[in-house]
Design goal:
By secondary structure, the chain is mainly β. It has strands at residues 16-18, 21-23, 30-32, 60-62, 66-67, 74-75, 80-81, 85-86, 93-97, 101-105, 110-112. The protein has two domains: 1-38, Single Sheet (N-terminal domain of TfIIb); 59-112, SH3 type barrels (Roll). Pfam families: YjdM, Zn_Ribbon_YjdM.
Amino acid sequence: MSALPPCPKCNSEFTYEDGALLICPECAHEWSAEAGSDASGDDKVIKDSVGNVLQDGDTITVIKDLKVKGSSLVVKVGTKVKNIRLVDGDHDIDCKIDGIGAMKLKSEFVRKV
């Protein structure tokens, strides 16, 4: 069969080569063929809208009016959010906003202070 390693994310055995990358057709994860099967795929770097690297505990500013789904509330431009927590997923910032409560934000709509 194939001598390629299984996907490090979902353990699928159906990986294939595309140039220097290995690709999983089931979860669409891509990784370098030279990296082998080391488990360093968990070190995801999350950056804000201008490219600054975000870390847990940072303070950020919202750069766009964001409507809160399921409510009439809006997170206004310039809202400062302290003590963020980075999580996996589409909305990669978990935080608490004064007057609104717990929220998840996308890193593309914030800027590090």
